[in-house]
Amino acid sequence: MMSKRKILAALRKKNIPVERVEYMRGQPTPSGYANGWDIEITENTENILFNAGFSNCERINEIDTTAEAIEWINSMPTLAI
Q1: Which of 19, 21, 27, 49 could be stapled to 40 by a disulfide with Cβ–Cβ 3.0 to 4.6 Å?
Q2: 3-state SS class at 48
Q3: Which of 79, 68, 58, 59 is nearest to 6 (CA)?
Q4: Is 46 exposed, middle or buried (CB count within 10 Å of its CB: 0-12, 13-18, 19+)?
């Protein structure tokens, strides 16, 4: 899937390790069913991002579109390897 590759490339560019990137279809929500990306990071990565001043993330991040996922990743700090 081309969109998944774009998301993974954006994460690699920022040196952000990822556990899972998966497009979820028909996930139940209070307002009906929804599609979108699940981007899962480790607790350690979440802590590193938080300590670098980025608090807009959790272990599993649910994002509606590829464009929103790329925008979110681009707002992250680049981590040192």
Answers
A1: 19
A2: helix
A3: 68
A4: middle
